UniProtKB/TrEMBL annotation:
InterPro entries: AB_hydrolase_fold (IPR029058), Peptidase_S10 (IPR001563). One of its GO terms (molecular function) is serine-type carboxypeptidase activity. SUPFAM superfamilies: alpha/beta-Hydrolases. PANTHER family: PTHR11802:SF248, SERINE PROTEASE FAMILY S10 SERINE CARBOXYPEPTIDASE (PTHR11802). One of its GO terms (biological process) is proteolysis. This is Predicted protein. Coiled coil: none annotated. Pfam families: Peptidase_S10 (PF00450). Belongs to the peptidase S10 family. It comes from Hordeum vulgare subsp. vulgare (Domesticated barley).
Amino acid sequence: MCLEAQRKEERQRMPLKLLPVRTAGKCYFQSLLLHLVPVLLLLPLSRPASASTVVTHLPGFDGALPFNLETGYVGVEEETGAELFYYFVESERSPGTDPVLLWLTGGPRCSVIMGLAFEIGPLKFVLAPYSGGLPELVYNPYSWTQMANILLLDSPVGSGFSYARDPKGYNVGDHSSSSQVQTFLNKWFTDHPQYLSNPFYIGGDSYAGKVIPLIAQGISEGIDIGKQPIINLKGYMVGNPITDPKFDENYKIPSAHGFGIISDQIYETAVKICNGDYINPVNEKCVEVLHTINNLISEISIEHILYKKCDVVAPNTIYDTSKRKFLLEESIQLNKPPAQPTVDCFTYGYYLAYFWMNNNLTRNSLGIKEGTTSEWIQCNVGLPYTYEIPSSIPYHLNLTTRGYRTLVYSGDHDLEAPFLGTQAWIRSLNFSIVDEWRAWHVSGQAAGLSIYISLFQM
């Protein structure tokens, strides 16, 4: 999952939600609609962190920003000089008391500008035909900053404007990148102690959903041993999360059948000869039918099956697998722009972001260090990354049994992390159901399903 597509252009349509609340030795999961509860998360801004920049104006945005924005770098590994870049948007409601939300983007190694300008942040690009110059930005009145302080982080190293002085610093994986996020938070809160008492949440989608429970568990363990600063962790949220191939991959085929992408005949053949395991085919006939299915799926937009299949705004490869060495010089040279999609493509905004982020006026406004990231790329897919966590389910189970609040939401048109798989791994936790799956409504119309689940503490 190299391309981190716009994970739901309309975040109001996310059906599956879980929110546990601790009560008298029990943990009750409450279902909430994401678009009705951007209040779930939150955080404020005060004095800037070291090496930070207070941003009052942005190129392409008319006038002063109607919200408080801080950007900056935080060192997370002294040996390689790795530094993570962040955007901190203060809550537009009550920054002193609203929760702090750390937001991560998946990929891995997609820029968190996706969260800032395409998902939950206060900015959005004007989707007009691009003829050169600086793309325009406008205010997003539906930003989660209406009720939360949001700390958006380019992680792991190599995402967005995060960088390392030593090329070895880019060779990370699930565990090392999660540890670096914890280091970042410890330093950021040390520089921003006024936010330590605010409720703290971690959120993200797609592949970020795989590592968020690991990061939350690391913070929780630090709290247990009294590691300073004590972060006021309350819970986490994951959207269309990559979780476990047993569920994510195996449920793609029944989902594709339900969406009408594959026929009854093809689906029934796959069920019969693959014995429900579509990850490790055990016979040649299974291999053949899976090849047919994959060819059909490749013809649609897997991130949102109703979207037009568009050009992928992707970078050139910057990791030479034949020489097995990191090509630092090539990675920071400005290459030819990505292919231009049509304006009606969901990737068109990413195309505009490429030119905006690579403009010197933008770099100066954001406080980007010279010589660190010569070319901003939406998803740095060519860098080495070690996928070390086969399943994040044990982390979900551990955190929820300890009483942390959890929200799981899943859009119904994502075939990369299909909601059928999300429902299945939730069932595998064997929690007691308080209220069966039921429809939730928007403007009197059924828009999805929600469920209440309870967990009795040991």
